[in-house]
């Protein structure tokens, strides 16, 4: 039968009323110094605490009422004994005449407090008697509260070092003994709560137990507050005794709470120095205890402690904190067979965090942690538990965040092995995280080994994983991922070409698995590799990009004075142009690129150059649109006039080009007339005029002032005949003419040259 | 009128006083009418010295066949009311037959009187000591006056006082071992002990220690036994688990105990028992009774 809340309230109210009623008569007795009545009514008052009807929460309320009253009783006892009406020893006996044990013991503790204060008996004897007598209460809740009362009233009366109750026969050991015993008994009672009542009320009971756990924990707090508990005593007495109790109670709730309590109340340096003892308890705990939280807590405290001062770091080394923690975690995992994998990984995450914070310089430790984790995971299928996966990601991310440098992580042989245990999707996510980390920190990956390690890590992004082809790969995500990988290339760099080559070769190997023989980094070899790489683009296909790259390579080969190589690249470029570039706009762009590049090449012999320029002009004239043709053709004129010391200066062919451009412009004009009834783009003529002016100034003998004059006249006529004026063409012409005018006025050599031209 | 009243009233008053009456310790005894009275306290082999004062009524003559004082130790069994068994009877003649005209004082002394039994006032039996003054008369009834006094005998500390230790239980249900530090306790003593729980398979609610007094009177088929529980002292609240040991500390002083009396004059016995009672949640009681000897220890003073 579950007592409902309403009943409980009623019982509580009755209890409180009972206390108040008896307290009233008790006060009267206290006021009139009537000891007999005072005892009688206080016993009756305390009898209200004998109830079994209340939950711990409500019982606490009742207890607090009685507690307040007991303070008055204590004061009265003190006055009575001071006045000499009764000796404290007699009083100590007198209260024990009460027939009911609970009121008797509350009063006994109260007198005990006065007794110790009177110093008529050694504090230790009184304390020992009290803690022993309290065994009479075996009811968990009543016992816990009684002992809590004992703990409360004795706190300031322990024979601690420096306390007035210390000395002679009273040593701090007695104080410790007392608190330990009270703690042990309270814990036993607390654990016992679990085993009473109905099985189906287990949850309720656990809730009730957590409500009173601090009563038990208070003892540990008192212990930690005892001045006399120095490190030696802590190590030799306090810790072993407390741990013994914790382990032996075999109760998961208690073990979890108390381990946590130990870690919280005692100083970090104690924990550090007693790590072995403390840790040895963990594997002995119940399998259901949430050890990972507790251990994480411990490691966090220790790492905070390490961070607090550099002076304590040697201590960590001296006690081999890492080895001990690592060992302990191994044992815990071993001992708790049923621990879910996520628990184990969480533990490793904590240990790793600890390591990174305390021993950032010890990569071997980090790797050891990862290794241990791998060992735990090995033989298991890939993780499908999302929580575990999350923890694993945390494990892998921690070193990245700490070192801000993937290079460090790459030195960890176990790192990729941990990654292997992620499912494919997560592995990709992790790989992206790694890449982002590299990008963010602009880490330079400078050796082949590192490249290999890195690509091992991110292989999830590079290759399809065996078998598990995800059908629903989001196109955008995929692009995002691949972009990340591509960006990564920029982070691979080594100033040493040999090394750089190795890097590149490793990269290549990623896709094809072909690794050729080791070669030294000759330019030829490098171009070969470049060639191969660009070829790959064709299969994508991305001909425009490949074309650009070919041209760049050609230029690079030009700089290296490798004519055949440069020629080859050009050939490839042209082949691409012919075969792959079909779009007319792309063709325009491509041909201009080709012309531009070719213009800068100086490595070619006459024959090769002729072939190439011929090709270029040929393709220019074959462009689809007339204006494009025109522009490409006049651009070709530059191929025959390189304004450099040893540059080719073939004035005749320049003129040929320009004339051809004019013809095309004319044709364009006529076509426009024919189709739209309007004159074509005059602007082409003006552009050509500008080319003429350029070559005129550069001293091409074929371009004379009269030629220029003729062209200007032509343009003018064209513009007049054109009904629709194009303002941009007008402006262009005007500024061109202004330029000529300006040159004339400026005088000098150029001025003379321009002199004959009339505008 | 006076004359007539005087005819029915005793013609004299008798008072018995003790020589050290003012200083002697007193004890309270229950009188027949239920009231308590304070009477002098003696122990065995003391001299009982005092005076008897006989004062005739004003202007009266008391004729008598002699005056005597007796010291009587009596056992009175209530089921046999009216019959007194005198186990001690000492007589002192105070006066030879003659006439009394005026107040007369008779000193008396019983030296080193053997009073082996203590005064006792039980349920079915009473043991008391009295001084009885008798004025023997012819033709008319004797004039008698009583003075009760109390006897308590002290015992030295016993040389042998073993502890009581015992393991009891119900198979597969409850096994306990209890230990009381002594088997003989004086009246102001403390019972110190421990109860160990060796096996607990029942749901115990609490445990208490009772002090029981067993008074048996008569003999053979006419034996009457009365048992009283004088103390109920809760030792434990709640259910212990295996391995618990519960301390016991019971002060005897608040309870009205007497020493243990064994076979007093073949008439009665008073024995004391410690009864350890365990109560389970269904209010079933499991108990083990153990006799202890109570004695009166000479108080130091």
TrEMBL record, chain A:
Subcellular location: Cytoplasm; Endosome membrane; Golgi apparatus, trans-Golgi network membrane; Prevacuolar compartment membrane
A GO CC term attached to the entry: late endosome
Gene3D superfamilies in UniProt: Vacuolar protein sorting-associated protein 35, helical subcomplex Vps35-C
Main location: cytoplasm
One GO term of the biological process aspect: retrograde transport, endosome to Golgi
Top-level lineage group: Eukaryota
Record bears the keyword Transport: yes
Keywords linked to the UniProt accession: Cytoplasm, Endosome, Golgi apparatus, Membrane, Protein transport, Transport
Bilayer topology: Peripheral membrane protein
Family annotation (PROSITE patterns): EF_HAND_1
InterPro entries registered for this protein in UniProt: ARM-type_fold, EF_Hand_1_Ca_BS, Vps35, Vps35_C
SUPFAM superfamilies, alphabetized: ARM repeat
Annotated family: Belongs to the VPS35 family.
Function: Plays a role in vesicular protein sorting.
UniProt protein name: Vacuolar protein sorting-associated protein 35
Organism: Canna indica
UniProtKB/TrEMBL annotation, chain B:
Keywords: Cytoplasm, Golgi apparatus, Membrane, Protein transport, Transport
A single Gene Ontology CC term: endosome membrane
Superkingdom classification of source: Eukaryota
Membrane topology summary: Peripheral membrane protein
Pfam families, A to Z: Vps26
Record localization: Cytoplasm; Endosome membrane; Golgi apparatus, trans-Golgi network membrane; Prevacuolar compartment membrane
Record protein name field: Vacuolar protein sorting-associated protein 26B
Role, per record: Plays a role in vesicular protein sorting. Component of the membrane-associated retromer complex which is essential in endosome-to-Golgi retrograde transport. The VPS29-VPS26-VPS35 subcomplex may be involved in recycling of specific cargos from endosome to the plasma membrane.
Subunit structure: Component of the retromer complex which consists of VPS29 (MAG1), VPS26 (VPS26A or VPS26B), VPS35 (VPS35A or VPS35B or VPS35C), VPS5/17 (SNX1 or SNX2A or SNX2B). Component of a retromer subcomplex consisting of VPS29 (MAG1), VPS26 (VPS26A or VPS26B), VPS35 (VPS35A or VPS35B or VPS35C).
Protein family according to the UniProt entry: Belongs to the VPS26 family.
Main location (coarse class): cytoplasm
Record-level GO BP terms: intracellular protein transport
Taxonomic classification: Eukaryota, Viridiplantae, Streptophyta, Embryophyta, Tracheophyta
Gene3D superfamilies per the UniProt record, alphabetical: 2.60.40.640
């Amino acid at each position: 039968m579950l007592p409902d809340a309403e009943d409980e309230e009623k019982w509580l109210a009755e209890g409180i009323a009972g206390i108040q009623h008896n307290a009233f008569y008790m006060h009267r007795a206290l006021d009139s110094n009537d000891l007999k009545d005072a005892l009688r009514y206080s016993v009756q008052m305390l009898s209200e605490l004998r109830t079994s009807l209340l939950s711990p929460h409500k019982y606490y309320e009742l207890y607090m009422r009685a507690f307040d009253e007991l303070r008055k009783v204590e004061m009265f006892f003190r006055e009575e004994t001071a006045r000499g009406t009764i000796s404290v020893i007699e009083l100590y006996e007198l209260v024990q005449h009460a027939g009911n044990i609970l009121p008797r013991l509350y009063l006994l503790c109260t007198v005990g407090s006065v007794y110790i204060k009177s110093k008529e008996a050694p504090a230790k004897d009184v304390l020992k008697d009290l803690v022993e007598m309290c065994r009479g209460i075996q009811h968990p809740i009543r016992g816990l509260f009684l002992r809590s009362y004992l703990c409360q009233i004795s706190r300031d009366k322990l024979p601690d070092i420096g306390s007035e109750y210390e000395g002679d026969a009273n040593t701090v050991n007695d104080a410790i003994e007392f608190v330990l015993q009270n703690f042990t008994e309270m814990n036993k009672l607390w654990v016992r709560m679990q085993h009473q009542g109905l099985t189906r009320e287990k949850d309720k009971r656990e809730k009730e137990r957590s409500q009173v756990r601090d009563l038990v924990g208070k003892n540990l707090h008192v212990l930690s507050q005892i001045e006399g508990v120095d490190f030696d005593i802590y190590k030799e007495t306090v810790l072993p005794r407390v741990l013994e109790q914790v382990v032996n109670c075999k109760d998961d709730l208690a073990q979890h709470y108390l381990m946590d309590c130990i870690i919280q109340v005692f100083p970090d340096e104690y924990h550090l120095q007693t790590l072995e003892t403390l840790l040895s308890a963990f594997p002995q705990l119940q399998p259901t205890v949430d050890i990972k939280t507790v251990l994480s807590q411990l490691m966090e405290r220790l790492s905070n402690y390490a961070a607090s001062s550099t002076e304590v770091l040697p201590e960590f080394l001296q006690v081999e904190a890492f080895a001990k923690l690592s060992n302990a975690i191994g044992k815990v995992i071993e001992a708790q067979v049923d621990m879910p994998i996520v628990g184990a990984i969480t533990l490793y995450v904590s240990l790793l965090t600890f390591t990174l914070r305390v021993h950032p310089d010890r990569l071997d430790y980090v790797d050891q942690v990862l290794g241990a984790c791998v060992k735990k995971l090995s033989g298991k299928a890939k993780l499908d538990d999302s929580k575990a996966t999350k923890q694993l990601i945390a494990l892998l991310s921690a070193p990245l965040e700490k070192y801000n440098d993937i290079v460090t992580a790459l030195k960890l042989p176990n790192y990729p092995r941990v990654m292997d245990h992620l499912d494919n999707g997560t592995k990709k996510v992790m790989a992206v995280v790694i890449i982002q980390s590299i990008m963010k920190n602009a880490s330079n990956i400078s050796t082949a080994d590192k490249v290999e390690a890195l690509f091992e890590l991110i292989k999830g992004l590079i290759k399809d994983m065996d078998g598990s082809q995800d059908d629903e790969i989001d196109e955008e995500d995929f692009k995002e991922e691949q972009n990340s990988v591509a960006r990564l290339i920029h982070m691979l760099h080594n100033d040493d070409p040999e090394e750089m080559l190795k890097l590149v070769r490793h990269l290549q190997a990623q896709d094809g698995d072909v690794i050729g023989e080791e070669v030294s980094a000759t330019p030829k070899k490098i171009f070969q590799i470049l060639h191969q790489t660009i070829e790959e683009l064709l299969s994508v296909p991305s001909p425009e990009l490949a074309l650009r790259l070919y041209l760049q390579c050609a230029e690079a080969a030009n700089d290296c004075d490798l004519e055949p190589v440069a020629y080859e690249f050009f050939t490839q470029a042209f082949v691409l142009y012919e075969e792959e570039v079909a779009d007319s706009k792309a063709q325009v762009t491509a041909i201009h690129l080709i012309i531009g590049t070719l213009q800068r090449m100086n490595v070619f012999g006459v024959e090769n150059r002729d072939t190439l320029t011929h090709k270029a002009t040929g393709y220019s004239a074959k462009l689809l649109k007339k204006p494009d043709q025109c522009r490409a053709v006049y651009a070709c004129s530059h191929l025959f006039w390189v304004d450099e010391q040893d540059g080719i200066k073939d004035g005749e062919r320049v003129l040929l080009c320009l004339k051809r451009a004019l013809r095309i412009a004319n044709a364009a004009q006529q076509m426009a007339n024919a189709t739209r009834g309007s004159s074509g783009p005059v602007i082409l003529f003006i552009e050509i005029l500008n080319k003429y002016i350029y070559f005129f100034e550069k001293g091409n003998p074929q371009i004379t002032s009269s030629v220029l004059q003729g062209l200007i006249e032509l343009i003018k006529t064209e513009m007049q005949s054109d009904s629709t004026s194009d303002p941009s063409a007008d402006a262009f012409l005007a500024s061109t003419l202004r330029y000529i005018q300006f040159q004339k006025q400026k005088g000098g050599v150029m001025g003379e040259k321009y002199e004959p031209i009339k505008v | 009128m006076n004359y007539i009243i005087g005819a029915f009233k005793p013609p004299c008053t008798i008072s018995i006083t003790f020589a050290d009456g003012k200083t002697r310790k007193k004890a309270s005894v229950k009188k027949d009418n239920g009231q308590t009275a304070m009477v002098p306290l003696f122990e065995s082999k003391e001299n009982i010295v005092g005076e008897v004062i006989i004062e005739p009524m004003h202007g009266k003559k008391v004729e008598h066949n002699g005056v005597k004082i007796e010291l009587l130790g009596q056992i009175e069994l209530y089921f046999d009311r009216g019959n007194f068994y005198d186990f001690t009877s000492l007589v002192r003649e105070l006066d030879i037959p003659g006439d009394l005209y005026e107040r007369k004082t008779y000193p008396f002394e019983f030296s080193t009187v053997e009073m082996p039994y203590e005064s006792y006032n039980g349920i079915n039996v009473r043991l008391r000591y009295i001084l009885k003054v008798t004025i023997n008369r012819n033709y008319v009834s004797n004039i008698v006056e009583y003075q009760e006094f109390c006897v308590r005998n002290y015992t030295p500390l016993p040389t042998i006082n073993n502890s009581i230790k015992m393991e009891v239980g119900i198979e597969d249900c409850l096994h306990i071992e209890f230990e009381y530090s002594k088997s003989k306790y004086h009246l102001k003593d403390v019972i110190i002990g421990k109860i160990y729980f060796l096996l607990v398979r029942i749901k115990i609610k609490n445990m208490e220690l009772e002090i029981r007094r067993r008074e048996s009177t008569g003999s053979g088929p006419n034996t009457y036994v009365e048992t009283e529980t004088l103390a109920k002292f809760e030792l434990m609240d709640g259910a212990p688990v295996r391995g618990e040991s519960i301390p016991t500390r019971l002060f005897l002083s608040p309870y009205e105990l007497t020493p243990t009396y064994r076979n007093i004059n073949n008439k009665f016995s008073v024995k004391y028992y410690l009864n350890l009672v365990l109560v389970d949640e269904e209010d079933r009681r499991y108990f083990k009774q153990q006799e202890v000897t109570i004695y009166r220890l000479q108080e130091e003073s």
